[in-house]
Model the fold of this input.
Amino acid sequence: MRITSLVLLAVVLGACVPYPNAPDDDSSSLVGKAVASTYTGLGEGAKVVKSQHFKLAAYGDDAQKDSDAAETDFTQLVQDIGLVTFLPIAPYKVVVYGSQDEYRKKTGQADWSIGVVATDGSGSIYTYASDRLPGVLSHLITDAVVMEYLNQQLVDQQRWLLEGLETYEEFKTENRRGIYDGFTAMLTAQPIPLDQLENMYPPDERGYEVTLWYAEAYGIIRWFIESGGKINFATFLGAIHDGDNFDQAVQTAYPGRWNTLADVFADWQRSLQ
Done:
């Protein structure tokens, strides 16, 4: 797999979705979702490390290192979205296979898959050792935590929220946030309209549109968190958790600044000028 400086991250929600490619990038890696948390575990030499939020299995000394990385990713996430008191119902199971080959054989995932999150509500995570593991874990942990917080309820029109947040956390972990700057001109000149952002299903679209979709979702989430404030974003998520639609959640979380999601979208667009 070729990874260049402009590759965007993969997304996780309901099905395998490819890493969108930047205009000059031909890499194509994927993360997806497992149906249940019953994949075959590791072989001889595996260690299990239990921490506050995870029960992680990996080979040899990597187990402690990977467990520490997972806890760091978790702390970064809950601080970013203002959910510092959130605790999962049970520690998330994380399995880090020793290689892509072992991961593929034991999970049945395609060659391009780099990680899966179980859709059975457990938040179990499966991936494999690589130099990008901390960022991949950050991506997958974001999915597990946010979906548990939202009681596994996220309608299709809200998909971009999770995708953008996963992108935000992975970029931050890998210190690759500058990638987004390469898309500013495109987003300024021809942004995807808000209704299309909510209703477009990226895997069915052209590569350019997929790339722009993820860049836009990331940009709006970054604006939400860094301009609107982490505490306000926590209130926004809390309102969605309680069943509010996006416009109601925006009114609750950002009184006096934004009244609708369209207001947020317009404000974000102006910030690109």
